[in-house]
Task: structure prediction
Amino acid sequence: MLDYVREPEAIYARSFELIGEMPELQALPQAVRPVATRIVHACGIPEILGDLRFSDDIAAAVPAALEAGADIYCDVDTLRHGVMKRLLPAGCALHCAIGNTETAVHAKANRMTRAAAQIDLWGERLDGQIVAIGNAPTALFRLLEYVDAGGAKPAAVIALPVGFVGAAESKAELAGNPRGIPFITLLGRWGGVGMTQAAVNGLAGGLNT
Result:
């Protein structure tokens, strides 16, 4: 029989312990270490922490919004399915409309991605809510455009979209001008649904499993 750790609780605990010892993590403010730990746990690359950007209030803003009744709006279904519901308050809903007919029609009529079209359709419903974007830079660009036009402001933006076209640019725009919105993002092409799920889970529930 091969010698390896079998118990899931022990795997989690040892993983978080190893990440916690890394200098890249220890260089971060204490308040964001739980979410940073989860992000590294999701990708296995501690070096990304040098590209992590966040507002000073993000670690407090997400739990506060959730306790106040905020829902979470996700750019893709895979992100929605990866959020640990047991870490969320009762009644917190996870939304994604990328597969809806109305979204597809709006996207085609306006020559935009379905991920961006969702932002238009959600509109003022995003006021005081949490927006999580892990796949589509166009969704982040559209959200920022919406806020710039005087639209509703989310309570927090968790945006780590991945890609070669628009990912680095959209996240740099958020980090450089967050429009007064608490945020966390990862500069460059790094990112993806897995890391964004981890960020949501880390901000909602710390290192609880």
Observations:
- The longest strand covers residues 130-133.
- DSSP finds ten helices and six strands in the chain.
